[in-house]
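Our consortium's second objective concerns turning raw sequence data into structural hypotheses that experimental partners can test. To show how far this objective has progressed, the report includes one record in full. It was chosen at random from the queue rather than selected for favorable results. The single chain below, 253 residues long, was entered without modification.
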Amino acid sequence: MTTRFADKSVLVTGGGSGIGRAIALAFAQEGARVAVAGRSAAPLAETVELIEQAGGKAVALTGDVTNGQDAARLVRETVEAFGGLDVAVNNAGVFGAAGPVAEIDEADFQRVFDINVTGTLLAMKHQIGHLRANGGGAIVNVSSNLGAHKRLAGVGAYAASKAAVTALSRAAALDHIREGVRINTVSPGPVDTPMSTRPGENAADKAERMRADLPVGRAGAVEEIAAAVLYLASSEAAFTVGADLVLDGGVTA
């Protein structure tokens, strides 16, 4: 274990699987105490167990970031568990049903925006409130290359929601940097998680599609996204404010 985040407390939403789990593990490996948050207790417990098996310290917090009271409680319980909050990573998100704009189900569209956009807003609101009152800190939001950087037929709701996350993050960065809260975004392209797998697609089919679609010839690894998040959260990125780091293997180059 390294010590870049020694004595730091980190809150990761959507920490029960995929990119969120990789981010939580990476922070713990670099010395942080990590609160992993999400709606389902079982996958969060698995993340905590992995961290503890590696010698780290973590706690699982269940909550729904679309609920303002839950978003506030996640911050409060992180502080209660670890004595403070230094870094927050807002990774909770959903893809939603695919289909053309004219056929988007209104309820599904609202669900995607509630989780991806309103959830990010409410999480940031309460994280910023604590950080600016306690010496500052860093926030990294997980957006997507779909949205502000690339559009794709059939995923209008998701792309629109992630474009909103990117814009909201940059606005928040400007609003709060003079209060000591530094906010940035990562925007991954296809990553080797279930979210990037098409219905009925096996691993070989997916690998072949990625070789054809991505200039780098493969999907990203969750560890590569986590590494970028840790950089943006670290003191090494102290001059980086309102950035949107695209990690998509050259798709939007």
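The partners drew two points from this record. The mean pLDDT is 96. The first strand starts at residue 9 and ends at 13. Both points have been shared with the crystallography group to help prioritize constructs.
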